[in-house]
Structures are given as structure tokens and as C-alpha cells.
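Z., the sequence and structure:
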Amino acid sequence: METETATRWLTDAEQCAWRTHLDVSRLLMHQLEKDLQPFGLTNNDYEILVNLSESDGHRMRMSDLATATLQSKSRLSHQITRMETAGLVRRVNCESDRRGLYAVLTDEGMDTMRKVAPHHVASVREHFIDLLPPEALAALRESLRPVADHLRDNRGKV
């Protein structure tokens, strides 16, 4: 027979903090997505464009891009297909590994990034950054760092 461990239910304060976090996360991502719509982009599209624009040669192995964007390889492949159709990225075979593929930012993708980035940053400022004083932002960053580190360390573990 298994030994049961007593459930550590959330206190009222913990429950409030958790639900506030969920609300902010969902509402903020919804708003950022809405603000990308006039450019024909989703949050996932934008995240891929950012990753590629910041990588050497504006290219990443598909497997690394999947890891960076927390997507399955299959889902990323579908996403990249849509972005290829839009002319934002292209796939290139990896010369050192015949099975490997790179996602490469096209000139049109980089132009899109340059056009959209200022609007995205303004949206992030309007709906998040500028609503909090600098000391609250610093405290939030420090408070969330252990959570981010823990989740990064546990990625891929069963």
C-alpha cells in the first residue's frame, strides 16, 4: 500500500498570488497577440522571428529553435511552413548533418522584424513595463528568477 502524503493546499494569500499570476499571464499574452494581428503575426511567429534575428547568421537548427520556443518539432515544422509561405523564413539543409535543417530568416522576415519590433515593444511597455515602478520590476525579476531557473532545470525531465 502506498503511503499518502497530505496535500499542501494553497493558503488564501498563495491562491490569490497564483490566480493573479495566471490572470496576468493570459491577459497579457492575449493583448500582445491582439497587437500583433495588424501585422499578420502571432506571438509564436514573433518569437521565432526574434530568435532568428538574434542568432548568428539569422539561422538556427530546427531542433534548437523548437527548444528555444518550447514547441514540439512537429508543431514548429507546421509553424515554419506557414512562415515560409508568408516569405518570412526558409528552410536550409544542414551541411554537416543530412538529417538536420536550419530555419533561416529571409530579408522579408528581417524587414518585418524591423517594422514590428517598435510596435511590440510599445505594447509591452503600455501593458506591462510602464504600469510598474522600477523597484517593483526589480523585485518581480528577483522573485521570478528561482521559478524560471527551476523550470529550465526540469525541462525534458520525466
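The chain has a mean pLDDT of 94. Residues 17 and 141 are 15 Å apart (CA to CA).

Let me know what you think.
H.
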